[in-house]
Write a structure and sequence with these properties.
Blueprint: E1 3-7, E2 13-15, E3 21-23, H1 28-40, E4 44-49, H2 69-81, H3 83-87, E5 90-91, E6 102-105, H4 110-113, H5 119-131, E7 135-138, E8 161-162, H6 167-170, H7 183-189, E9 193-194, E10 205-208, E11 211-214, H8 220-236
Parallel strand pairs: 1-4, 1-6, 4-5, 6-7, 7-11, 8-9
Antiparallel strand pairs: 2-3, 10-11
Helix pairs in contact: 1-2, 1-8
Length: about 240
């Protein structure tokens, strides 16, 4: 059975430039849609967070910003169905990424607060990338690569093709004007070969070898389906 390590932020806020905490966490669609897609494919999913802390749902993601009312209801129902799993994640430092066929990071503003600085996650990402085995990061989750360092001190993700939430999309949030940094800027500073869709809030997925990234919440389904197709094809050819 295909095994997935689903790494979710444990942060419940994003600290802005003026020191105010913006309530945050994980984005509903980015957890619900890939989790459901992998589950329906028959994959075994292990949820992990820094410290094993139960992740916090960003309430904005089940409001208007989360899409059409029917879609938000569907996402909420699915999250309710896996509530026990989300309430009891594994501590990230207690899992071995080598035991999994896929490592998947959903987003939300939470990763900007914790995973971007988490050394355990950074080491996991560095090892996973160089292992050649599938690694996927969605929307704000590429912030986690800021904590990844190669032996020479550079980013192991430098030169890799990636996407993530664009500056234009981020700045649709009024509070983002107080952001300490924006994801697109940071990825470019690391030397990532960053690209994005022509229009904001449209699905966009980038695949570079074993590295898969999705630009925004709207990319959740496309990214998850691409992973199921590619990993399934690889396993069936063995």
């Amino acid at each position: 059975m295909t095994k997935v390590l689903f790494v979710i932020t444990a942060a419940d806020r994003w600290t802005l430039n003026d020191g105010t905490p913006h309530p945050s966490g994980y984005w509903a669609e980015e957890v619900a849609v890939p989790h459901r897609t992998f589950s329906e494919a028959g994959w075994d999913i292990t949820v992990a967070t820094p410290g094993g802390k139960a992740p916090t749902l960003d309430r904005l993601s089940i409001g208007i910003a989360g899409g059409m009312p029917w879609k938000r209801r569907e996402v909420e129902r699915y999250l309710d169905s896996i509530a026990d799993v989300l309430a009891t994640p594994e501590p990230l430092d207690a899992v071995d990424a080598d035991d999994f066929d896929l490592v998947f990071y959903p987003g939300g503003h939470g990763p900007m607060e914790d995973l971007a600085y988490d050394k355990i996650s950074g080491a996991l990402l560095s090892h996973r990338l160089t292992s050649g085995r599938p690694l996927a990061l969605l929307c704000h989750a590429p912030a986690a690569i800021l904590a990844a360092t190669a032996p020479d001190g550079t980013s192991p993700f430098a030169g890799r093709r990636m996407t993530g939430l664009s500056n234009r999309e981020e700045l649709l949030n009024r509070f983002a004007r107080k952001a300490p940094w924006l994801l697109e800027d940071k990825l470019k500073e690391l030397g990532v070969d960053y690209s994005k869709a022509r229009l904001p809030l449209r699905p966009y997925v980038v695949v570079d070898g074993n590295l898969y990234t999705g630009q925004n919440p709207q990319s959740s389904a496309d990214l998850a389906q691409r992973l199921v197709a590619d990993i399934g094809a690889t396993q069936s050819s063995r």
